[in-house]
């Protein structure tokens, strides 16, 4: 069996497992689902030594002044929140009437931005239970399109995209690039919300801006496309407030910085939005995805960790 066939077979098995898990989860009360997720997260933290080490190294680069014990505590909370959040989102997708457990602060900022009639570029991060943020906005009646990378496994990607679509969330795949740009501009001009997460390393295609005092490659697309469409950029994040309870916080629209030339303008605004993301992470560090190599294209956290230690 060649690699493509093997991957396709693995994908079909995974889809069946996901369907069975969702069928089981929907039969349980939310409290039980959250408790199962908590236990799964504890096991994940204990068993994933390499990921645990990466999280601590990344945290050491971001927070050189806190103790190793504090970093370990933040890392443990993050590892617990990952599977717990996934199971809770799975449960909410089958119990949409229970989304009252997810509150929203700052909705007036989003409404004011949409009232301009040029769509909204929603700026977010891999922070908190972000799929639940998408679900809450969609079920509140907002037309939301989320940009994401196509999944390596087409069967799994199709299953997840179909599930999101049934819940009112549409996907814009970031590749092919030309189609992603045209779809994004069309939705912004249709006064829709396009949500993009700006907190991952963007390799050679990004620009270097400061993130926790270190150069990090960051995408320019959100700023460039919002500028082309004349769309306001509205930062939004989701925070856990308890077992099965979350709060979406929508911040005021970012005031576009205009400088002498386009390159400087784009960089200034990318830096400002990255600073907003950093501020939210500092507020609730246990919510961010510390297992991503954010400084991969700049200075690796492993190197920074050695200097710090």
Descriptive report:
- Helices cover 53% and strands 16% of the residues.
- It has helices spanning 3-25, 30-47, 49-62, 68-94, 107-114, 130-139, 154-166, 177-189, 221-229, 262-283, 301-308, and strands at 102-105, 120-124, 144-148, 169-173, 193-197, 207-211, 214-218, 233-242, 245-250.
- The strands form 2 sheets. It has a 7-stranded mixed beta sheet. The protein has a two-stranded antiparallel sheet with strand order 6-7.
- Helix 1 packs parallel to helix 7 and helix 3 (49-62) crosses helix 11 (301-308).
- The N and C termini lie far apart (48 Å).
- 35% of the residues are buried.
- The model is unreliable at 300-309 (pLDDT under 50).
Estimated structural class: alpha/beta
Shape: globular
Instruction: Please report the total strand number as a whole number.
Output: 9
pLDDT < 50 stretches: 300-309
Q: What is the arithmetic mean of pLDDT?
A: 94
Let me know the largest β-sheet: 7 strands, mixed
The helicity comes to 40-55%
- Report the radius of gyration as a whole number of Å: 20 Å
Q: List the total number of helices.
A: 11
Strand content is: 15-25%
Q: Give the ordered list of helices and strands.
A: HHHHEHEHEHEHEEEHEEHH
Strand order of the largest sheet: 1-9-8-2-5-3-4
Please report the distance between the alpha carbons of the first and last residues.
48 Å
Summarize the structure.
This protein has 309 residues and is an alpha/beta fold. It has helices at residues 3-25, 30-47, 49-62, 68-94, 107-114, 130-139, 154-166, 177-189, 221-229, 262-283, 301-308, and strands at residues 102-105, 120-124, 144-148, 169-173, 193-197, 207-211, 214-218, 233-242, 245-250. The strands form two sheets. A seven-stranded mixed β-sheet has the order 1-9-8-2-5-3-4. The protein has a two-stranded antiparallel sheet with strand order 6-7.
